[in-house]
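Tip: read the tokens left to right.
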């Protein structure tokens, strides 16, 4: 990027710990048609990185967006760049990657309304776009050109990294057992007991004293006096129905209740009003 004076660029400043958020924000703003610079998506010229960024802030910054986090605020050079940028009224739009109010106490940055990425990246992006609109900053490009620029953005390091990652989805392949086990219980079960058992053992109630499941119940959920009667293949013509229900419908309900058990194991909580599992805020 040229360092000739032309204040037309949204300068996104960050430290390595906030690389993912900074590069994502730069691309999203490019897609929206804004001219952006972020060293995570653009080569940094010059031997002194700090001096180069300061020069960009001085000569090219239309708006300065520092990504604030405990790591960035602990970086002396980054903190000094924020102080320099505060010298121009209306130049700084702080972007909180985490709750940093305590770290900003007494600083001029604490008096500026931030874009709150600590809640969610989508929330933070909406805050940035709203702030740009309020300040009269309009896109530089049409959407088509913005997409082209974002796609050509320089990527100095791999987007993916080797290592385990927990992935959450509602679409995945499942393997269904070929047979269904039939259990007899000595008496009908009360609703509270049914709900408690289903947290760890998925089953279908075929009759008042007949339960169906893919698997044997765990030892902690054994019902006194119950026993395994027999099993049947749900996908055969011979057992197309059981207790007045289509076997394939029984299989589908067992599959859904197995997913409910998986949700409980993953730490999700049941909402009785909406009748869905959800992630509790911790």
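Filled-in amino acids:
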């Amino acid at each position: 990027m040229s360092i000739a004076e032309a204040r037309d660029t949204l300068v996104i400043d960050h430290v390595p710990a906030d690389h993912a958020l900074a590069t994502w924000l730069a691309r999203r703003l490019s897609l929206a048609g804004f001219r952006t610079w972020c060293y995570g998506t653009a080569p940094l010229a010059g031997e002194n990185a700090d001096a180069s960024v300061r020069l960009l802030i001085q000569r090219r910054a239309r708006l300065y967006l520092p990504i604030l986090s405990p790591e960035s605020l602990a970086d002396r050079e980054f903190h000094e760049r924020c102080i320099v940028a505060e010298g121009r009224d209306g130049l700084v739009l702080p972007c909180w990657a985490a709750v940093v109010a305590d770290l900003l106490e007494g600083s001029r940055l604490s008096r500026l309304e931030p874009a709150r990425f600590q809640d969610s990246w989508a929330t933070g992006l909406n805050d940035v776009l709203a702030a740009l609109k309020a300040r009269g900053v309009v896109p530089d490009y049409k959407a088509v050109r913005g997409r082209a620029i974002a796609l050509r953005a320089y990527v100095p390091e791999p987007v993916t990294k080797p290592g385990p990652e927990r992935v959450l989805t509602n679409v995945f392949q499942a393997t269904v057992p070929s047979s269904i086990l039939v259990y007899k219980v000595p008496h009908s079960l009360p609703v509270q007991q049914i709900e408690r058992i289903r947290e760890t053992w998925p089953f279908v109630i075929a009759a008042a004293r007949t339960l169906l499941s893919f698997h044997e119940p765990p030892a902690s959920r054994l019902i006194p006096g119950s026993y395994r009667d027999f099993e049947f293949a749900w996908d055969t013509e011979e057992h197309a129905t059981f207790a007045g229900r289509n076997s394939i419908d029984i299989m589908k309900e067992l599959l859904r209740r197995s997913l409910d058990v998986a949700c409980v194991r993953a730490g999700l909580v049941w909402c009785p009003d909406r009748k869905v599992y959800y992630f509790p805020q911790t």
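The longest helix spans residues 247-265. Residues 9-151 form a domain with the Rossmann fold fold (CATH 3.40.50.10140).
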